[in-house]
Amino acid sequence: MGLFERVFRGSDEMYAKAEADVNALVKELGPDAPMKMPDTAYFLACIYAYIGKKVTTVGELQAALADVKALMLREPRTHSIFNSGVGTAIAAEMIEACKYAKTATPYGEKDDNVNYHGHFSDAEVRELGVPLVTGDIPGFVVLIGPAPSAEEAAETIKGYQSRGIFVFMIGGIIQQARSQGIKMGFPVRVVPVGEDIWSVGHIISLVVRASMIFGNTQPGDWDAFMDYTFKRINAFVNAYAPVNDITVACGAGAIKLGFPVVTNDTNDMWRVPKSLIVYENTKDWIETSLEARGIKIKVTNIDIPVAFSSAFEGEIIRKADMQIEADGSRVDCFELVRTKDVHEIEDHAIILEGKDFDEFGVGEKITFSIIAEVGGKNMQPDFEPVMERKIHNFFNCIEGVMHTGQRDMIRIRVSKAAFEAGWRAKHFGEVLYAKIKSEYDAVVDKCQIRICTDPDKCKELRAEANHVFDARDERLKTLTDESVDVFYTCILCQAFSPSHVCIVTPERLGLCGAVSWLDAKATKQLDPNGPCQIVPKTRCIDERLGRYEDVYEAVQEYSHGALEKVTLYSIMEDPMTSCGCFECICGIEPVSNGVVITNREHAGMTPLGMTFSEMASMTGGGVQTPGFMGHGKNFIYSKKFMKAEGGLGRIVWLPKALKDTVRDKLNESAKELMGIDNFADMIADETVTEDAEELMNFLTEHNHPVLQMDPLM
Ligand code: SF4
Ligand code: ZN
């Protein structure tokens, strides 16, 4: 029997199960029962993407069986086996969908202590946007089946993790990982998807949604999907022997999407260069796979006793596992980057003042401050906050270290495991030094680190640091769209949204929330031909809308002609485009003439009758959609928020948690713009209502300013 036959047998098997499950479901629930996957606006995404049908009922699911069957032609041609492979993936999605038709939570923690993930929400797909474009996640691996041993499984998973590769697991390897104490979950980027091979449907669903969300790929357009997944999604598969026919059929689907498969199963396997790789030494799979998918990993060698990888960013350290904690809300702690004359800096010096970590007790709360002193002829004080904000990300990448906050409101935890591995105070210095020197080499010639754990000295240093922070805040206040000479483009997201361009101004940060005007300025300096280019602002056409001839030219050039013109301050007239990784989405609420804003973290409903996922699906992929706009959290309190339509006084509804984080600044801006006190209290949230009519009552009761504004349409 050849490989073709194995694919056909596997796809028949998957199809037969899908057919049986779907038919049983129709019998159980009836054809009119609703069929919806949780937290997605893309229906059953594989069916929607490849067949172009929006399945919303169990009966429609049953009707789609024929479309899947039609893909599975038993012809001995390469084209047919790959189509059968895609059909297999869709059949897998159908099998999984049957579970979700009965309960919204078929997965979750089971008796064996593994929290199987199952379906991915749209928010999770979107969350991947920024780490993918920045290269923090250079790719994805799907590990299928048990590895030769549990130890090897753990080693391979950690190997991928240390390279930043996002790990999906299916089948026996999950129990192996559990037995080796591997931390699993979406935040640590090691995800136990499901026990059965059909759970692969969730991964393909994630992939096709990424393509629709970021790439604006249209349902039914196979070529566009193949092109997108091949060019922009660096995924690959590692399938451990013995590989059954059904897995072989899934592998054919993966190859069709452009994802190479590496296996040690030699039974009727053919080698297909760069696509199907039979490699018996499973211990070499990481290098083999990365090479096959063309993934190059940038490593910074840091002399520390624990691992360093973006995979550890989401790691949480509980009190019981904690060796030491620095808590800036209780004692004097801070982090600071300062410019100094190069002659005053001894490169790579790490100076510790006070006790080291082994001189404190277990679980002790300590004072801790860290200052990076940097110098170089291209260094500007404006880059200090840019580097300083990255400390959070640098320290979180350390295995066994958790960092939150910034400036003098930081909290750092070091785990017992990291301490026992030899983690000491100076290692924070090693990390900071290495990262600053590698990421900012164009502006930093020399860097030295001062660490202090002495309470009295920390108090004194903190007072000095606060002067620096205050001075910076003053500078930020004077940074307005009017006060600067240039804006910047950012096209980092073009890796996934080929025609998207952000225009970043002092009062409008990039919609991902990660790129401010200062960041863009630093990026331009560090990488002159990189994603951030200067947009002069010499030819203003319309001040109210923020129309500039220069901005038009920039978006035309950098969107490669896909975009003609954008305004900076309007949501209705030529609004800025969205890629897919926006923190918030804002949409017009027609009854009140206001806007509703919701964010990725908020899973609930809004008064528009849409969730975040549904609102987010209205825009994206670099397209202009008047009435909907993706934006960063900080833009909510900007004086330029919807300036053309009356400003932030248009905001009528926000999720409570988001409202609380922006409350003070929002109130401050509202006071300045409209003379209103406590504006945040006039804005409804989910604890008030999720209904448009009740929303109007609330706004009337609170005399919300939107009621005096002109209609939006
Ligand atoms: Fe993407 Fe815009 Fe953020 Fe740049 S500023 S990373 S283009 S969302
Ligand atoms: Zn983006």
Describe this entry's structure for a reader.
- The chain has 713 residues and is α/β, with parallel strands linked by helices.
- The chain is 37% helix and 15% strand.
- A six-stranded parallel sheet has the order 5-4-3-6-7-8, sandwiched between helices.
- Strand 4 (166-170), helix 8 (173-179) and strand 5 (190-194) form a beta-alpha-beta unit.
- It is globular and about 75 Å long.
- It starts with a helix and ends in a 12-residue tail after the last helix.
- The mean pLDDT is 94.
- It binds iron/sulfur cluster and zinc ion.
Shape: globular
Distance linking N and C termini: 66 Å
Number of helices: 21
Number of strands: 25
Structural class: alpha/beta
- Strand proportion: 15-25%
Spatial order of strands in the largest sheet: 5-4-3-6-7-8
Present as ligands are: iron/sulfur cluster, zinc ion
Question: What Rg is obtained from the alpha carbons, in whole angstroms?
Answer: 27 Å
What low-confidence regions span 5 or more consecutive residues with pLDDT below 50? none
Q: Can you give the helix content as a percent range?
A: 25-40%
Biggest β-sheet description:
6 strands, parallel
Q: Provide mean pLDDT, rounded.
A: 94
In short:
With 713 residues, the protein is α/β, with parallel strands linked by helices.
List keywords for this structure.
binds zinc ion, about 725 residues, six-stranded parallel beta sheet
